[in-house]
Structure formats: C-alpha cells, structure tokens
C-alpha cells in the first residue's frame, strides 16, 4: 500500500532528532516553578527524546553555560520547556509551541525588564522558530535573541545560518524569513541531514542509522561543526553578544 505524501511526512517527522539584579518576583510558571527575575532569562527547548521531560536535554546546557559566561551567571536565570518531545511529532510540536508560549509569557509578564534568550535543538529548534515568527512586535522586543542547532527548518541562504552546506536546507523545508529585529544564530553541523537535507529518502536513512546520524547528536563537540567551537557553545556565545 502506497502512503500519501502527508502520511509519509508525519511518519518521518516522528523520527526527527533523537533525534533542547532585578529583584525576585514569584508567580506560577508552566513547570510549577517560581519565576525569578534577573537581567536575562534563557529558555531551552530540547529535541525529540533528548533527555528527560524535566530538563533542557543533553545539547542545550552547553549553550546556556556559554551564555552565562558572557553575561555573568548571577545575572541569568535559566529554565526549560516541559513538553513531550516525542516521536508523535505533530502532537509534540503543538504541545511544545503551547508550552514555550506559556513559559515565555510567564517571564515576560512577571519580569518586565528581563531580556529573554531562546535556545532550541532539533524539534526544539523547529518549535522556537514557529513561536518567534508568530510573536507580536511587543513580544519580540523582549528577545535577547534565539540560538538554534540541528534546525529541521533551516534556510541556508540566510546570513544567520552557520552551515558548511549552502545548497541544502532543513528536511521539513526552509523558513521563509525571520522577523525584523530578531537576532538569530542557527548552526548546522557538517553532515547533519536534518538541517542540510539532500533529499527525503537520504534524510530518513540518516535518522535510522545509529552511527551515521552522529552529526545530529554531537552539537556539544566541534567534530562536525563548520565553526572552530561546538555548535551548542556558539549559539550561547553569539546570542549573548548579539554578534
């Protein structure tokens, strides 16, 4: 039986990303944690099945550490989005978008002077991109910037995209644009067929191959990065400096 294009896409989506002083004010956050207000807030959205639900995953803590090193750890509060990050991609994306919006709004509303940095890995990068594109200008003004790794919607033609492959983009398509004024730093490792897809069949084979898919799982090392440092470190560093 031949599956429809939509069915094949939904099935394949499920395989993405094993493949991320202002004084204290407390409110109820989506993770049932107290919101602490500091000069900067980082919100991390992990990838599919990357770490536990109550964490920022395995890749994004490196980005947060790099951000804190630039801004000073006492000036930064860090949190994560509590969502499925599951292989049921369509439902998980909807859950993640809603959870990110709620988390962002909790900090934006409770901490009117905080600047918010969003970090996303794989499915998490997809979620961050979708939410940022849908933000109001008032919400976007609160952003320090966004840092993405292994983005399945990467557009390699953008200056914000740091990739060794300028011919191939994300396996779910290429994001048409970023809103004006939003700082974006988007890294795709060499050979990562989630963010630099050659074609549909190749991306699916990549995701199924435990050894071949290493470039998508190694954003904390510089082994596959087009940069001299790891992709995760770079997004934290550059979003902090906005340069």
TrEMBL record:
Q: Which residues form the signal peptide?
A: 1-29
- Please give the start and end residues of each transmembrane region: none
What's in the keyword line of the UniProt record? Disulfide bond, Hydrolase, Serine esterase, Signal
What is a single Pfam family found in this protein's UniProt entry? Cutinase
Instruction: Name the domain of life this protein comes from.
Output: Bacteria
InterPro entries membership: AB_hydrolase_fold, Cutinase/axe, TAT_signal
Name residues in a coiled coil: none
GO MF annotations in UniProt:
carboxylic ester hydrolase activity
The family assignment reads:
Belongs to the cutinase family.
Q: What is this protein called?
A: Cutinase
What's the source species for this entry? Calidifontibacter indicus
């Amino acid at each position: 039986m031949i599956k429809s294009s939509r069915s094949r896409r939904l099935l394949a989506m499920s395989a993405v990303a094993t493949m991320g002083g202002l004084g204290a004010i407390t409110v109820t956050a989506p993770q049932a944690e107290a919101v602490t207000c500091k000069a900067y807030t980082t919100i991390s959205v992990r990838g599919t099945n990357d770490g536990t639900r109550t964490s920022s995953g395995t890749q994004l803590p490196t980005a947060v550490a790099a951000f804190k090193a630039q801004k000073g750890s006492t000036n930064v509060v860090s949190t994560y989005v509590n969502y499925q990050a599951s292989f049921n991609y369509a439902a998980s994306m909807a859950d993640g978008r809603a959870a990110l919006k709620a988390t962002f709004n909790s900090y934006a509303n409770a901490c009117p002077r905080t600047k918010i940095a969003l970090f996303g890995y794989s499915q998490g990068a997809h979620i961050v991109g979708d939410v940022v594109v849908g933000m109001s200008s008032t919400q976007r003004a609160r952003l320090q910037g966004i840092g993405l790794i292994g983005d399945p919607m990467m557009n390699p033609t953008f200056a914000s995209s740091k990739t060794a492959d300028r011919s191939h983009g994300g396996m779910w398509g290429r994001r048409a644009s970023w809103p004006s004024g939003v700082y974006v730093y988007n890294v795709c490792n060499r050979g990562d067929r989630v963010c630099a897809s050659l074609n549909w069949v190749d991306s699916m084979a990549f995701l199924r191959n435990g050894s071949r898919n290493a470039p998508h799982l190694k954003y904390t090392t510089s082994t596959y990065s087009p940069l001299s440092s790891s992709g995760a470190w770079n997004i934290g560093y550059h979003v902090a400096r906005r340069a």
